[in-house]
Write a structure and sequence with these properties.
Length: about 900
């Protein structure tokens, strides 16, 4: 296709491109509107590609910009462009890959990748062969341009390139790339490695065939003088360590030596190399291969943890007081709400000897995950300008994981380094020492204990250091030792630590405020009710911070208040505390609009406060309840509108609904029966029916938690809807969504306790799935425990229906419940088990030892439950006779025999 532009049109577009480089927002907006208008004309895109590839009279940034605008058009409107226009753009791009300008070559490469992604590689069959042929060009620009495009394609379409749909082009491409590892141009050497690196993690077959050649070539390039080449060599070696360690083993010593040198490079290579230690720590051979190198590695990692000058400038390390400067909205990271999950508290005695405890716990756990581990180094030095992951964070994380591998063997090497850094005159070195001390806290805790009586007071003193960056890292490090602090005499450590941390919460520096607030939340989780004597003092500080904090830290403050409520529970329910805490919270609540995302952390906080205050929350509950109902209603309406007419209405942010459901759960749990009057005058049951069928797992998860809590608080209003609700719960007993399944299971158990024998018609729709879940070896602990409790409760209300299946679940049932503390849920489940054994005693015979173990896990069963358990144990002994019983008891661990003798006189 030959196409020529009109001079007027061309001039108009060039003017627009020049204007769009203006820094004036008004001009920018006008250009944006004009570009949207021009998109109505089919050949607008021809003009754009013409400027990029042909208009050499214009400067490179303007030509490149033309290509980037075209890229966005293809991304957004690609499917509607005429095939002829797309063909024209394709051929022009391929020609431009050999442009003398690196910027134009790179832009053409980006365009090619965008077209390939949008239309699919299979619809451009000649692309890969053409690019591979171009690699052999004698013209350097053509070879380099083609490699740039190939690298982007390998990055975006690694999976597709290995598919039979494309005839497995990698079989040709990988050997081809390997030929370029020894090319004279560093840019091309670097591209060749980067292309192959994309295929390591998936163990792509086409690469595995050539893996030895690849490794050999990587080693050859390890001492390359070019920085990008070395960076890609490091990246490749780190991934190879994960997927084919056996091939690296013979060279492991040299690789470690190499990475030690690279970790000390003064450019970004050091970060790529530092990742090696993180990956090595996860391998079983880590200890064996790394031990001889530790004395050299540890000092390198600690040095890597030091702020460099540029970090300090970016972090405004010399600005001590900035609390009056408002936050920029773009500096505030989006927060993710973690929906409610119903969990059990386990007893500390995991053997047959349990320890007492209180009721079932509600914890904010990660969605569809048994446990979510936050990376402590991710939020350290949190600043939007500082690259998210840098050498300092990576070195700290590496020290942390290695401390977990080597445990106390790490300390002989580390302690002398700590002595040197911790007490250093230069604040930057002292700061890195405090960070290192925090990083090893988890792995080396035992070995550190003798040093803590000296170190903790030193750290508490560092909380008032004159450098804000020292004060903030000290908060973090102290939080890593909070567990030890709480276990010591309070006057010695906890009290001084708390007083200093509270002062830091009111620091004049925003970074210190943030670190202190987070550290205090960790301390609250560790100390729980130990904080009760200091509640007045703590609340006074937190409430004072309300008036002081800028936007970003306010959100962290909500978290600290919510955690305090979770930790001290009903001890917060005192008029003087409520009068301090509630007015500022409600004032913020009234100021926020329904569409403001700041509602999330505030609603989470109020949910914890409502659960803790119980009846103390009554004066505030009506407006809070109404607003939650309205948030759910609005989200559902918007969801319906966006589904029925997708173009007109955008999809709602369902987090508003999830957080509102969770706060209603908090109200139901805290206010108990008092919520009845609010439920009766609202359409909560209809809303719940809709939420329980939502497509988003987290919405269902939170609605099942609320259903369970409403069942406990005011079953009379749930009862009429049971025939609608139970089939939905049965349908959600799908362990693919762990937390959804967990909450559905728990809600079924709560409903059965209220329905009693009326549960009978629903047994067929839930029992089979529950038995499947309890027998699945992959089921996480929390779900196992809730499943066992629910099966026990179903057996309690409908023993005749459930007992025939006893043999299918009794062993797993006993194993799951032996570790949880005495509580109401465990009580009802065990009563159910006793009923089922009475109906079907044969069902337990084969696994009776497990039943004995479970019976021994009680600390203080209620008198009548104790009698039931005793009756079953003695009945079995009578049934089998003395001799068989003695033989049976010989299999018991001594602890179990003693416990049964003491508890059940058997």
């Amino acid at each position: 296709m030959t196409w020529e532009p009109q001079p007027d049109g061309l001039n108009q577009i060039i003017t627009l491109l020049k204007q769009s480089q203006s820094t004036d927002n008004t001009i920018q907006r006008a250009v944006q509107m004009k570009l949207e208008e021009l998109n109505q004309y089919p050949d607008f895109n021809n003009y754009l590609i013409y400027v990029l590839t042909k208009l050499t009279s214009q400067d490179e940034p303007t030509r490149s910009l033309s290509g980037l605008i075209l890229k966005n058009n293809i991304r957004i409107h690609g499917t509607h462009l005429q095939p002829a226009i797309i063909e024209y753009i394709k051929q022009e791009c391929l020609m431009a890959l050999g442009d003398p300008s690196p910027l134009i070559r790179a832009t053409a490469g980006i365009l090619i990748t965008t077209i390939a992604n949008k239309g699919g590689l299979q619809n451009w069959p000649e692309l890969l062969p053409t690019l591979c042929d171009m690699l052999d060009s004698q013209d350097y620009s053509v070879c380099e341009g083609a490699f740039g495009a190939l690298q982007k394609i390998c990055e975006d379409s690694a999976d597709t390139l290995d598919s039979s749909a494309l005839n497995r082009p990698l079989n040709i491409m990988i050997p081809k790339f390997l030929q370029f590892f020894r090319h004279s141009s560093p840019k091309i050497r670097s591209n060749a490695i980067a292309c192959i690196n994309q295929f390591i993690i998936n163990r792509t077959q086409a690469l595995m065939v050539h893996i030895d050649t690849f490794i050999e070539n990587l080693f050859h390039l390890s001492s390359d003088e070019d920085r990008e080449v070395r960076k890609n060599v490091c990246r490749g070696l780190v991934m190879l360590l994960e997927v084919c360690m056996d091939r690296l083993m013979p060279h492991m010593n040299s690789i470690i030596e190499y990475m030690l040198i690279r970790t000390q490079d003064s450019d970004e290579t050091s970060l790529e190399a530092c990742e090696f230690w993180l990956t090595l720590a996860e391998q079983t051979i880590c200890k064996e291969v790394l031990t001889p190198h530790l004395p050299r590695l540890v000092p390198v990692l600690v040095r890597g943890m030091k702020y460099c000058d540029i970090d300090i400038i970016i972090l405004k390390g010399d600005v001590e007081e900035d609390e009056m400067i408002p936050d920029r909205e773009e500096d505030i990271k989006p927060r993710f709400h973690k929906s409610r999950t119903h969990t059990q508290k386990s007893s500390s005695g995991a053997s047959a000897v349990g320890s007492g405890g209180d009721g079932a716990a509600r914890s904010m756990e990660g969605n569809d995950d048994d446990e979510v581990i936050d990376d402590p180094y991710d939020d350290m030095d949190d600043d939007s300008n500082l690259s998210d992951w840098n050498l300092r964070k990576c070195s700290a994380a590496a020290l942390d994981v290695l401390a977990n591998v080597f445990k106390d063997d790490f300390l002989p090497i580390l302690l002398p380094i700590l002595k040197e850094t911790l007490f250093h005159q230069e604040w930057v070195i002292k700061e890195s020492g405090i960070l290192a001390l925090g990083a090893i806290a988890e792995g080396c805790m035992n070995g550190m204990i003798p040093h803590l009586p000296e170190l903790i007071p030193y750290l508490i003193a560092c909380l008032s250091d004159k450098k804000a960056l020292v004060r903030s890292i000290t908060c973090w490090t102290l939080s890593r030792y909070a567990h030890w602090v709480v276990s010591q005499p309070h006057d010695q450590y906890l009290k001084p630590l708390m007083e200093e941390l509270l002062k830091r919460i009111l620091d004049a520096n925003k970074r210190v405020q943030e670190a202190a607030c987070s550290a205090f939340a960790t301390l609250e989780e560790e100390a729980c009710t130990e904080l009760v004597p200091y509640l007045g003092f703590i609340l006074k500080t937190l409430v004072f911070a309300f008036g002081k904090y800028q936007h970003k830290n306010l959100l962290i403050l909500y978290d600290a208040i919510g955690t305090l409520a979770d930790s001290v529970g009903h001890h917060l329910n005192k008029p003087e505390y409520i009068n301090m805490l509630m007015p500022p919270l409600i004032q913020k609540w009234n100021m926020l609009k329904d569409e403001d995302k700041d509602l999330f952390p505030l609603l989470e906080c109020l949910s914890s406060v409502a659960t803790a205050l119980q009846s103390g929350f009554l004066p505030y509950c009506e407006p809070v309840y109404r607003r939650c109902i309205s948030l759910i209603q609005q989200t559902l309406n918007q969801d319906l509108a966006s589904t029925t007419s997708p173009g007109q209405y955008e999809q709602p942010d369902k987090d508003f609904m999830i957080v509102a459901l969770d706060l209603l759960s908090g109200l139901a749990e805290g206010l108990d029966g008092h919520i009845e009057s609010l439920v009766v005058s609202s359409n909560i049951m209809q809303l719940l029916y809709q939420c329980m069928q939502d497509s988003m797992p987290e919405v269902r998860q939170s609605s099942f938690a609320l259903l369970g809590d409403l069942t406990k608080a005011c079953f009379q209003h749930v009862h009429p809807h049971i025939a609608d609700f139970l089939p939905i719960l049965g349908h959600n007993l799908n362990p693919e969504y762990i937390s959804v399944c967990n909450n559905a299971t728990w809600a079924i158990g709560e409903i059965s306790i209220k329905l009693m024998e009326d549960t009978k018609p629903y047994i067929p729709i839930v029992l089979t799935q529950l038995i499947e879940i309890i027998n699945n070896t992959n089921t996480p602990k929390t779900l196992l425990e809730n499943t066992a409790i629910t099966i026990g409760r179903l057996g309690l209300v409908c023993p005749v229906e459930v007992a025939p299946s006893l043999q299918q679940f009794v062993r797993q049932w006993c194993s799951s419940l032996r570790n949880i503390r005495d509580n109401e849920e465990k009580d009802s489940a065990f009563r159910g088990m006793c009923q089922m054994i009475t109906v079907n005693p044969v069902g337990v015979v084969a696994d009776f030892i497990f039943f004995c173990d479970a019976a021994a896990s009680w600390m203080n069963p209620k008198k009548d439950l104790h009698e039931m358990l005793q009756k079953i144990l003695h009945g079995f002994k009578m049934q089998v006779g003395e001799e068989n019983w003695s033989r049976f008891v010989e299999q018991f661990p001594p602890q179990l025999s003693e416990r049964l003798a003491v508890m059940y006189n058997i």
